[in-house]
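Async update (no meeting this week)

Hi team, since we skipped the sync, here's where things stand on the single-chain job. The sequence we agreed to prioritize is pasted below, unchanged from the tracker. I ran it this morning and attached the output directly underneath so nobody has to dig for it. Comments welcome in thread, and please keep replies under the output.
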Amino acid sequence: MTRSSHTWKFFRAGGFDQVQLDNGADLLALKDLNQKLWVALSCPAHGIEFDSRTLGMIDTDGDGQVRANEVLAAISWAGALLKDADLLVKATDVLLLSDIAEDTAEGKQILASARLVLKNLGKPDASFISMAEMADIGKFVAGLQFNGDGVVCPWQINEPALRATVEDIIKTSGSVTDRSGEAGINREISAQFFADAEAYVDWHKKGEADAEILLLGTASSAAAEALHAVKDKIDDYFIRCQMADFDARAAVPLSRSVEDYQQLAAECLSAQNEDVAGFPLAAIAANQPLPLVSGINPAWRGRIGTLRSAVVLPLLGERQSLSFVEWTVLRERFEAFAAWQCAKPASPVGELGVGRLHGILSGNHQAQIDALIGQDKAVAPEIQAIHSVERLIRYQRDLFRLVNNFVSFRDFYTGHKAIFQVGTLYLDGRSCELCIRVDDVGAHAAFANNSGVCLIYCELVRNSGVEKMNIAAAFTAGDSDFLAVGRHGIFYDCKGQDWNATIVRINDHPISIRQAFWSPYKKLSKTIATQLQKFAASKAGKMQETMVKAVAGAVGEVPKPAFDVAKFAGIFAAIGLAIGAIGGILASVVGGLFSLKFWQIPLALVGLLLAISLPSMALAWFKLKRRNLGPILDACGWAINARVLINIPFGTSLTALPRLPEGAQRALFDPYAEKKLIWPYLAALVLLVAALAWAWLVGYFK
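Output:
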């Protein structure tokens, strides 16, 4: 085994040794301390009383857990950038510029960035920078023209034409959010847009260069749409005519029957009627051309007219009708256009129009946008250094507190609030300091039950239910007699905000030796009270039954059962035996006591009490000695590496019982106090005398 060059100090608390961290040298040497000696190896980055932004910076992999190696990396990074590592122990949020180490490139960059921030805040001659001055660092960075994220927004561009291009790119190709919160584009979006624009323009050029594609020039698209709108209906018409040529009998039914027209007669007809549109384009006859002017189905007259003017006249000339051969020629003329349309790029850049895309591509805008993105990325180290200034201030302020709640639980065992303690619960006349935030009560309770700690789970609500959270509060003093689901209390968080607390679940375990001492007597008194209540309820029920029968007897006489002497003799005999047995027991106890010497009687009574209470106290003592904080924190996402015990003295300090203030005056007279009854004492005295007399008669005192 190699001896460490650093001399460590340990303190003992919670039943185990914990490393004592007092100075910067201790922090820097932590990397050499075996992690088996750490109290925790991981903690959640949320749900604890620690600055979440600092934890987020330490959590470099962003998985929501801060681990031992990440803590060591944070200490190493901060220690290398500060001239004196003891600054990490002072835990101040003010960083002197003279304390930043300039012997590394990163240190020089951080110092330069700190001065840049101070300059922009109007403090160019300041010798320090504080956390308060870095509070709006996000707004400061976002307000810079170039902020290092490689995103260019329209507002950053002064040239109108280039700014319009960026706006068009955002409209057609999407955007990303800049650090300023505005929509912008990065290099990937820009490259995709210009690639799509070139593909669209090339596709359009191909159509312009081929007379077979744009056979009617700029009117080709409208003509193709007109032909496509009636293509299927005209095909249907010519097939029907060909069927009539095949069989003359088909002409009439293919033109629709008289009954079909009779069904239409009862409707309010119009050119938009779907039933009318379902009829053929024109009357069906063998080898008959399609009329283009008259004799056309009213529902299709407009579209056929558009076909005639947009397609037939330009390509075939004036026509009153269209033969099947002419229709086939027209369809073939537009096949090249249809194929060209199918090859049209699917990108939405076409929405801008080919003219606009020509203008963008000819303006060399892609190179200009790439240059702006390059300028933005060029300042990334400077921007990163600005964030590193904030990071260094946060580490200087927070790291020492973190390690004293991670490597050791020094804060917890020295009376300070640990980072896992989220506030104080006031309930049942006690205040509980060990309150831990819980996300899932059921899952937490199942595992935390292994801790042996009496845990009370509460639902906390404030602001009329707008804010809610759950906690587990450890009750480590007093008793659990009046703790029940549904009871209410008040919770104060570490910010001083008050919450309404309601018990929703209890993990019951021994709380104190005092509770264990009185537990047998409380159980006995509870059992006796329960039995008396049952006896009283039974007697009350019988009395009510007797009264009902008496009332019923007023209407009709109910014959009384004959008196059974043997039955009642047996009852009286049983009662006598019971009284005799009880008297015998009392007499034995009293006789045994009076057979002792006077000074032995108190010892015997104490021995009797201990005989009853000692087993319960011993069991509670063993359980209280084994109470462990580990399972409670493990259930919250911690990785506890030690047996963090909560022994009886320390547990008593975590739950405070009510005490009158020192020097307070107390009036013992209670005007509403219940009057003390004398007869129970008289009855007890009579029983005692009777027991003594019986003992004397049977010879116990001889």
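Quick observations from my side:
The first strand starts at residue 9 and ends at 13.
Residues 154-210+352-378 form one domain.
Reply here if anything looks off.
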